[in-house]
Amino acid sequence: MKNVLVIYYSQSGQLKEIADQISLPFVEDANVNVTYYNIQTKKNFPFPWDNDSFFDVFPETFKQIPTEIVPPSNEILQTKFDLVLLHFQVWYLSPSIPINSFLKSEYAKTILNNVPIITISGSRNMWAFAQEKVKVLLKDVNAHLVGNIALTDRNINLISVITIVDWMFHGKKRKVYGFLPLPGVSNQEIKDSSKFGEIILPFLKQENYNNLQQKLVDNGAVEFRWFLLSMDKKANKMFTIWSNLILKNPAKRKTLLKVFKGYLFAAIWVLSPIVHLIELILYPILYFSISKKKKYFQGIS
Ligand SMILES: Cc1cc2nc3c(=O)[nH]c(=O)nc-3n(C[C@H](O)[C@H](O)[C@H](O)COP(=O)(O)O)c2cc1C
Question: Can you give the residue ranges of every domain in the chain?
């Protein structure tokens, strides 16, 4: 009998749907015992979001400052799991506060110590450097990363900005203006993600995960867009400056968050199309370096 722990946090339910689909082949297998762990924080985050709360979580999210979480059950704490599937969402290019708080907790040290782990993100599309931050946290608790699945909204970047913001502020996936595509990971992709569970299952049984990541990538598990990686990197630099500035000036927090909102708006709608154009022009020159980066970000090293 193999024990699998499925960890998730989800505001809209999207990541829970993904977790259910990926773990489906395990649930249907009589030799696998699946336990679900829904991370809960003592302080609640609103969903749908309002303007102030959405921007107010920026500095703490980006600086990866943890908040208190509700302890997992004794059953979870006392079981030695053979595999953990960690589902996380990206907030401000970083693991969301609930996920970061769990990974930095004593509970994670107990549950994840010396356990193979597969990370599964469900984000808008900028997940790459958040995954790098998760890798560091996993190393800190001695978990062994054996696979990664990064599910995203595959629509054009600026369209997904409009549709995801609408979803976050209204709480429902809907067609903005009646014709824009639905936000988030597509229903079809969520439904099809049980194929990843099927791919993982034999690796779990043989307790050897060599070559798992390549198989996942071959089946479309990790979307890579060079332009997004480049924006992610640049935005991380800018977010470091903004988060430091806001946290060092608590008396001016509200005002600075308003200015940050303006900056973010300009970065998305003015800077990002310019960067995109430059990246397109540079693409042939940078081809080999981009291929190298693609290999790295689709891998797990
Ligand atoms: C405060 C906040 C910040 C977010 N920042 C990012 C981001 O930097 N990159 C990204 O790809 N998605 C971002 N998202 C989208 C989330 O990763 C995720 O797709 C969405 O919140 C749905 O997740 P859920 O399962 O918790 O409902 C953000 C969402 C929220 C609420």
Answer: 2-225, 228-297
pLDDT tens digits along 154-168: 999 999 999 999 999
> Of the candidates 94, 101, 85, which has an alpha carbon nearest to the alpha carbon of residue 216?
85
Longest dimension (CA), the chain: 58
CA of 155 to the centre of ligand 1 (A): 15
Burial zone of 275 (CB within 10 Å; 0-12 exposed, 13-18 middle, 19+ buried): middle
Q: Per-residue pLDDT tens for 165-184?
A: 999 999 999 999 999 999 99
Using the mean position of ligand 1's atoms as its centre, give its distance from the Cα of residue 11 in Å. 10
Q: How far is CA 242 from CA 245, 246, 257, in A?
A: 5, 6, 9
- Closest-lying ligand 1 atom to the alpha carbon of residue 94: 8
**If you take atom 19 of ligand 1, which residue's CA is the nearest one?**
123
Closest ligand 1 atom to the C-alpha of 54? 1
CATH superfamily for 2-225 is: Flavodoxin domain (3.40.50.360)
| R_g of the chain computed on alpha carbons | 19
CA of residue 25 relative to chain centroid, distance = 22
Q: What is the pTM of this model?
A: 0.97
Q: Give residue 99 CA to ligand 1 midpoint distance, Å.
A: 12
Atom nearest to 122 CA in ligand 1:
19
* Ligand 1 atom having least distance to the Cα of 93: 8
